[in-house]
Amino acid sequence: MLAPIAWRTPPEHYGPWEQVASTLTEGLVRQGVEVTLFATADSLTSAHLDSVAPHGYAEDPTMDGRVWEALHMARAMERSHEFDLVHSHLDWLPLALEAQWRAPLVTTVHGFSGPAILPAYERAGSALVSISDADRAPSLHYAATIGHGLDTDAFPAGPGGDVLLSFGRIHPDKGTADAIDIAERAGRRLLIAGIVQDEDYFDELVRPRIDDDRVVYLGAVGAAERPGVLGAAAMLLHPIHFDEPFGLAVIESMLCGTPVLAYRRGAMPEVVDDGVTGLLVDPHDGIAQAAATVAKAAALDRTLVRRRARERFSVERMVESYLDLYRDLRDAAHRRAPGE
Amino acid sequence: MLAPIAWRTPPEHYGPWEQVASTLTEGLVRQGVEVTLFATADSLTSAHLDSVAPHGYAEDPTMDGRVWEALHMARAMERSHEFDLVHSHLDWLPLALEAQWRAPLVTTVHGFSGPAILPAYERAGSALVSISDADRAPSLHYAATIGHGLDTDAFPAGPGGDVLLSFGRIHPDKGTADAIDIAERAGRRLLIAGIVQDEDYFDELVRPRIDDDRVVYLGAVGAAERPGVLGAAAMLLHPIHFDEPFGLAVIESMLCGTPVLAYRRGAMPEVVDDGVTGLLVDPHDGIAQAAATVAKAAALDRTLVRRRARERFSVERMVESYLDLYRDLRDAAHRRAPGE
């Protein structure tokens, strides 16, 4: 299991790719699969851990992420003959060097930074996994779509409440400023949680509106406090301004029983069961639409939200889907080389 | 021979790494060495050419340089078992993946973008070649210093003239604005040639002083016109603001008989024979010092400048130095594996 090394695996705060690599690794180990996790040296895992990078490069300005990522990948590559399969969460670099791997490669495509990286994917023989159908690039062939799962027991049912919640990195993509407008129009208080990823956006459009009463900024919320914050909200506002490939915070919220009010774009129609676990509104004139929908979203049955989310987004379901894919690849390899 | 792919090999205008890869390749072929050049598909060579990238990524905003560089390197890596030796001009990526090469690796270190890339070099077993002693990183072990050479016949003796010349990418590092000040104080006309690499610097400190009389900007000067421009100048002004690792324009100028007036830093003391092929001045208060030295530099004997430069910077001398290194590595490999 080749995790990214921007952050520790699992991450302490932000780090969705590392989070998925961790959740899958631990789930596979529980199923009796022997896994070696390539991640930062400070990572926590019940699998075998192998590391080159001492800690995440996103936490250390003296580390060049490109250099450490290459060294990290090279380490896994050198050992790849030891494994039945290599599962990469590392973006395009392992694909560009695919002929060097000594085991079949599975790549979970967590997101595309842009069309310019497609040449690495188009040439690759790796089995590609999309994390939603919405995130598929039309020019690529995928082996499967496997949505993320989470340790559902880590997200207990929350009591709900009156306050609305914006949860995720603070960036124009995530629409934090839209969430403030929606809450204001709906006459509700708003809590904001997440790392500041775009300082200018935060300074211009978010910080001036924080008054510690109607709009409260909690800062980054770590793994331990996350379920409490999510579970105590009336709903998660998710007015995204990009085609989000999945949305881990969305499923975390639903697992706690907190419904989601999101703009209908990216993977939201796949992740949110419209009318059951949340409500989707058109992004055009989204603020007015969303504000008008707040009362209806608050009336969704939290027990049903939670039940549906636990059915769809458990780690066991994700692990089983990946195991099916691994078996298919093994069987296909055996058919190609029957003598081995 | 693994050339960079920012530009064609050889480059049409700027591209010193590609230029050196080209010069060395053609020189080796003339010595009877069989060379496969990995470079952009539009490259020109008498060696075997192999390519992934259609053209240089620096000329095409739709190409992601990191992706194409990885694909390009991967191609050479896949074929590396065919070669006695792989000579890389590609910066740190081939070093980070060194265990994947199936032939001994020689790396010419054309320059460090910063200390953060050192981890890739420190772990590498590649024979490292510095292009000047000044450019050596103290923490690394080098196999040799081999300065660049050029096809000396491509740079015929020029007549000289009254005008001063600033030649190179327009960027604070290269001190284009200093050159304007030096020429003005010395009461001389100045020609500026080179690509604009830093638009802000050009717009603020260079463009306002271009008057098409005392200060003339020629734009980028291609390979064909270069010797004419260099040879018709009284001297090359090279008031650098960084520790330049070599300085190809400096040797091109000297080969044409045109002396160099440079700041004493980086590789300049190694490349310029102070008092013979040029004059070096202290970078502190460099403009005044340099302006006061213009007359003395103009009085240097152009025939001696040219003679010394041809002795020191011929392609034959560079090729012989690299062949010596290749032979040493082959002999060392044979000593380690006498049975093969």
What does this structure look like?
Two copies of one chain form a homodimer. The first copy, chain A, has 340 residues and is an alpha/beta fold. Chain A folds into two domains: 16-149 and 314-339, 3-Layer(aba) Sandwich (Rossmann fold), CATH 3.40.50.2000; 152-312, Glycogen Phosphorylase B (Rossmann fold). Helices cover 36% and strands 13% of the residues of chain A. Chain A has twelve helices and twelve strands. Chain A has helices at residues 16-30, 65-78, 93-96, 118-122, 176-186, 199-206, 226-231, 248-255, 268-271, 286-298, 302-312, 315-336; strands at residues 36-38, 48-50, 86-88, 105-109, 127-130, 144-145, 164-167, 190-193, 215-217, 235-238, 260-263, 278-281. In chain A, the strands form three sheets. In chain A, strands 9-8-7-10-11-12 form a six-stranded parallel sheet, with helices on both faces. A four-stranded parallel sheet of chain A has the order 3-4-5-6, covered by helices on one side. In chain A, strands 1-2 form a two-stranded parallel ribbon. In chain A, helix 8 (248-255) links the parallel strand 10 and strand 11 (260-263). In chain A, helix 5 (176-186) packs across helix 10 (286-298). Chain A is globular, with a radius of gyration of 20 Å. The two termini of chain A are 24 Å apart. The model of chain A has no long low-confidence stretch (mean pLDDT 94). The interface between A and B is medium-sized, with 26 and 26 residues. Chains A, B: Keywords: Glycosyltransferase, Transferase. Chains A, B: Residues 161-298 form the Glycosyl transferase family domain. Chains A, B: Pfam families: Glyco_transf_4, Glycos_transf_1.
